[in-house]
Amino acid sequence: MPKFLSKSRYISGLQCLKYLWFQFNRKKEIPGYTSETLEIFKQGRIVGELAHRLYPDGIKITRDWQPAGMSKKSNLALQQKKPLFEAGFIYKNFYAIADILVPNDDGSWDLIEVKSSTKVKDENLQDTAFQKFTYEGAGIKIKKCFLMHINNEYVKEGKIDPKEYFKKEDITSLVDELLPGIEKEADAMLEAIGQNDFPDIKVGPHCDSPYECPMQDLCWKFLPEDNVFILHRGSKSAYDLMERGILKLADIPSDFDLNDHHLIQVKAHGSGKAHIDKEGIGEFLSELKYPLYFLDFETIAPAIPIYDQTRPYEDVPFQYSLHVVEKEGAKPKHYSYLAPGDVDPRPEILKKLKKLLGDSGSIVAYNSGYEVKCLKYAARAYPEFEKWVEEIEGRMIDLWVPFRKFFYYHPAQAGSGSMKKVLPALTGVTYDGMEIGDGGTARFEYMRVTFGDGIKEDDRQKVRGALEKYCELDTKGMIDILRALGDLVGTK
Ligand code: SF4
Question: Could you tell me where the DSSP H helices lie in 401-456?
Fold first, then answer.
């Protein structure tokens, strides 16, 4: 049976021949996709289907898993001279299924690739070039190539209007520039996948670009603990060091140029002890004013807006957790909200928070710019809250600051200032064992049980319970972090 290169495999091959080899030869060993990646794929499919509405007389070619069968069906459909969705054609070892083909009066066709991004990216040009190359090889004259992507300025008002939702850009000349190189690239790929063993490709920046490679756990497992890749935002230095054969932080030569944060890391990992800048922490803590409000949102950001007055990928909170500490030493009071169903949660969240957050006191959030952004977006749709959001912005305190500025750094953070790393390092409390233990899963599960079909009530309630626990730990964890920082500098 011939080995066919599909568009996605061609793109994988451009990124890394080793990854491509595994896809053809040892696919079972490639780790599965994360729930977040699956959600991205799902959104992509939904966006693709929405684009079909722009061509009401279009014909969808039903999927045949054999390229030859698909090509036969697609060739028959061509004769109808109507827009075709997902028509598949073969040329040599190339197999392409383009999103939309639109007939022109002169017998040629326009090729449209639909993407759920909000702009044209380099990798989009590569995959459209692959489609054009294959289609033309199969005897279909392609006149123009378009990329149809999401218009990020679109604001939903009533039913989604695909004409406004999408932007269509003519990328013909950019695609044509890439055509001459395709066959050579493909030959190298076909040769590589025909070998008994995988090509010896070293890890590098390509492991994350243009896509996060799912093989990273396998390929990067040679790294020792305390390795140079945990240098905070230091991938350039880390690759330089790796080139020189230096993998451990402890082995970095003293004359190697490291910034202040990296020097803190090297020292902390060398001694196994936390770096503590008491003055910096003290200054940060001195900004806090009681009552203290610890706030955290969980959000969704669908490619196709769900609620009126939202844009594609706009972060919409569906849940908050709020702990309030009235005065020093007081027992925290907990408040929470989890949107009960598929109604727009924003008015209720704004109304409740306006009441709960009062007129004074610091509002503490981890990476508080995100909470502010969500509130501003929500107030854009409900302008009666705009002034209030402006007012509370001045009360926000970002608990990320002491860690982002390295006032505190513990080796257990492994280069990260995220709360998921800081909380256990500083307090011993972890997210381990939680049914929902990160924001991506929270978003995915909320979408699934709220908008998915055929969800059983006990599944829905279980997820909602897990969401409540997860969000509560985020704000409870902030209290614990603040207390631990206070202990370090001798304040309460
Ligand atoms: S992790 Fe990197 S080296 Fe390994 S297969 Fe993926 S891209 Fe290639």
Answer: 401-404, 419-427, 439-451
Q: Would you say residue 1 has pLDDT above 60?
A: no
The answer to which of 37-41, 364-368, 446-450 has the lowest mean pLDDT is: 37-41
Q: What is the pLDDT of residue 491?
A: 66
Q: Which residues of 461-480 are buried (b: 16+ CB within 10 A; e: fewer)?
A: eebbebbbebbbbbbbbbbe
Question: In one letter, which amino acid is 410?
Answer: H
Minimum CA distance residue for ligand 1 atom 2 = 207
Topology classification of domain 281-489: Nucleotidyltransferase; domain 5 (3.30.420)
Per-residue pLDDT of 329-351, as tens digits, reads: 899 999 999 999 889 999 999 99
**Fold observed for domain 5-193:** Lambda Exonuclease; Chain A (3.90.320)
- For residue 257, how far is its CA from the centre of ligand 1 (angstroms)? 28
Q: Tell me, what DSSP letter sits at residue 27? A: G
| Ligand 1 midpoint to CA 365 (Å) | 36
Minimum-distance ligand 1 atom for the alpha carbon of 22: 5
For residue 487, with 0-12 CB atoms within 10 Å meaning exposed, 13-18 middle and 19 or more buried, which class applies?
Answer: exposed
- Measured in Å, residue 207 CA sits from the centre of ligand 1 at 5
Distance of CA 215 from the midpoint of ligand 1 (Å)? 6
Q: pLDDT at residue 208 above 60? A: yes
| Burial readout 142-175 (b: 16 or more C-beta within 10 A, e: otherwise) | bebbbbbbbbeebebeeeeebeebbbbeebeebb
- Nearest atom in ligand 1 to the alpha carbon of residue 201 is 3
d(CA 191, CA 194): 5
Which of 9, 17, 215 best tests ligand 1's pocket when mutated (most atoms within 8 Å of CB)? 215
Q: Establish whether residue 216 lines the binding site of ligand 1, counting it when its CB lies within 6 angstroms of any ligand atom.
A: yes
pTM of the model: 0.91
Cβ(201) to ligand 1 under 6 A? yes
